[in-house]
Every structure is written in C-alpha cells, then in structure tokens.
Amino acid sequence: MDTQAPLAVEAPEARTVMDKAAPEDGINKETPSQDAQLGVQKIEAVTLAWTKKSLAASLINIWIIFLVNGLRGSILFSLTPFVTSDFQSHSLLTVIGVVSDAMTSAVYIPMAKLLDLWGRAEGLLIMVISATLGIILMATSHNLAMFCAAQVM
C-alpha cells in the first residue's frame, strides 16, 4: 500500500506568464541566460530581437568588412617589398610576416575572452581602432622597427 499522498495538479490558468513562455525543457528563450557573462548576455539579447531583415543586414555588413579587410591585406602584401627595400632591409621581408602572424595568433584567445566580458560591439570598436592605428603607423613609419610594430597592430 502506498503511503504517499498523490501530487496536486495545478489548473492551467494558475501558471504565470513566465511559465507560459518557458518551453518543455525548462529553458526560457524569451530572456538571455542570467548565469552567462555580460558579453554573452548582450549578444543573446540582440539575437532574440533580430528580425530577418536585420539578420540579412548584419550578414551583408560582415561581408563588406571581410571585403575591406581583404583589400587592405592585398594592398599591404603588394607594398611591403617596396617599403622594406626603401629602408634597405629587403632581406627582412619574411621576418616581418612571421612576427606579425605570431603576434596576431597570440591575440585570438584573449580577444575572445574580452568579447565575452564586454560585448561584440565593444570588441569590434577595439579592433577597428587597432587596425586604423596600425595603418596610420605604417603610413608614417620612417624605419623598419616602426613598420614592423605597425604591421603587428
């Protein structure tokens, strides 16, 4: 014989608004997760508010940024031999690329953590400022050391 009392069943009208929004797996898709980092909460809130038009606009903007970055890279690749020969350091052409690639790869993981902590928009702003500063430094460099530092930026 079972000594436990039967479980009480609530009427459907007694559920709250948040309960109605929550799916069967218990995860509420109407609000960002509260235990995530601030940057993750921000991007979750943005993706909950996106429409198909805003998603298409953001994908077009990503493509334009990728295109401009590729154009910048191809121009830099074409002009680097000219710059290094002007400094009479043409033999250091490969060293510049290796050092800048190594420094760039070392920034990926810390930048990903900063994106989680601060947010994607702030990270994009930091990267745009850093790339712009690097291009300005490259244009105004008068020696190879400054050019190398600018390319790392």
From TrEMBL:
The lineage of its organism: Eukaryota, Fungi, Dikarya, Ascomycota, Pezizomycotina. It is found in: Membrane. This is Major facilitator superfamily (MFS) profile domain-containing protein. It comes from the Eukaryota. GO terms for molecular function: transmembrane transporter activity. Keywords: Membrane, Transmembrane, Transmembrane helix. The chain crosses the membrane at residues 60-79, 91-111, 123-150. Gene3D superfamilies: MFS general substrate transporter like domains. The keyword Membrane applies. It is a multi-pass membrane protein. InterPro entries: MFS_dom, MFS_trans_sf. GO terms for cellular component: plasma membrane. Residues 58-153 form the Major facilitator superfamily (MFS) profile domain.
